[in-house]
Amino acid sequence: MSYPRIVKAEILKNFPLCKDIYALELSLSQELKPLPGQFMFLKIFQGFGESICRPFVFNSFNEKTVIIYKIVGEGTLALSKLKPGEILSAIAPLGKRPFSSNQENILIASGVKLAAIAGLQSPELFFIEENKGEREILQYFQLKATILKTKEELFEAIKPKAGKRFSLSIQSELALELKSNFNIAGEIFMQARVACGWGACYGCAIETKSGYKRLCIDGPVFNLEDVYRVN
C-alpha cells in the first residue's frame, strides 16, 4: 500500500453528471494507485488567498484520477466552479484499510457512495438510486447493476442472498438494519467528519465493539460485525 504524499492535481474536466453531482477528472504529478475506499485531501481555493481542505474518495479510471462529488456546502460549491487547467494541491492516498479484494462479495451502494466500491470486482451489484439521475454515476463508471429505489425493494432483493458476504457503501443506519434483519456479514465503508486525516485529532472516531476507531487510520472500511453505533 502506498504511503501518503503531497501531489499536484491538474483539473482535466469538471462537469455535472446530474443535479448537484459532478465528476472531477485530474492529472496528478505522481502516479497513485488508490485501493477501493481510499481517499485524498484536496485544497480548494476560494479566492482572496483563502483555501479549505476537503476529503474525497478517488479512483483510477480510464487512465485518469477521478472524484465523484455532490454539492453539499461551500467547499464542494467552490470545487464545482473550478475550470480545466487549474492546479490543486492534494494529499493521498489516505485510509489504511480499504475494501478487500474478495470477488465473491455482493456489492450494495447508494448515490455518490458508489465511488468507494467502483473499482471492485463482484458477481452482483445493487444500486440504490436515492435521487433522480444518480444512475448517471453507474454509467460514468460503466457498471451494470440492479437499480432499486426504496429500502423495501432492497430488503426483498437481499432476502434470498442473506448467507453471502457483502461489501456495503450505503448509509450506515441502513446497513445496520440489513445486519439486524438478515444477519448479513461483510464490510462497510464508513463516513464521518475527517479533519486531519492522520489520526491525530480523533474527529473521525466511530464506536465499534472493540472501542472507538479512527476512520482515517483504522478505516475507512470496517467489518460490519464490529459496527453497532454511528455518530
Give a short synopsis of this structure.
The protein has 231 residues and is α/β, with parallel strands linked by helices.
SS elements, strand count: 15
Mean pLDDT level: 91
Low-confidence region ranges: none
Class by alpha and beta content: alpha/beta
Order of helices and strands: EEEEEEHEEEHEHEHEEEHE
Helix content: 10-25%
The tally of helices reads 5
Dominant shape: globular
Biggest sheet descriptor: 7 strands, antiparallel
Shape-level CATH architecture of the largest domain: 3-Layer(aba) Sandwich
The radius of gyration over CA amounts to 17 Å
Distance between the termini: 28 Å
- Strand content bin: 35-45%
The level 1 CATH classification of the largest domain is Alpha Beta
CATH topology of the largest domain: Rossmann fold
Written overview of the protein:
This protein starts with a strand and ends in an 8-residue tail after the last strand. The model has no long low-confidence stretch (mean pLDDT 91). It has 231 residues and is α/β, with parallel strands linked by helices. The strands form three sheets. A seven-stranded antiparallel β-sheet has the order 4-3-7-1-2-6-5, covered by helices on one side. Strands 10-9-8-11-12-15 form a six-stranded mixed β-sheet, covered by helices on one side. The chain has helices at residues 74-80, 135-141, 151-158, 172-182, 215-218; strands spanning 5-18, 21-28, 39-47, 50-57, 59-61, 64-70, 87-94, 106-110, 125-128, 146-148, 165-169, 185-189, 205-208, 211-214, 221-223. Helix 2 links the parallel strand 9 (125-128) and strand 10. It has two domains: 5-94, Translation factors (Elongation Factor Tu (Ef-tu), domain 3), CATH 2.40.30; 106-226, Rossmann fold, CATH 3.40.50.
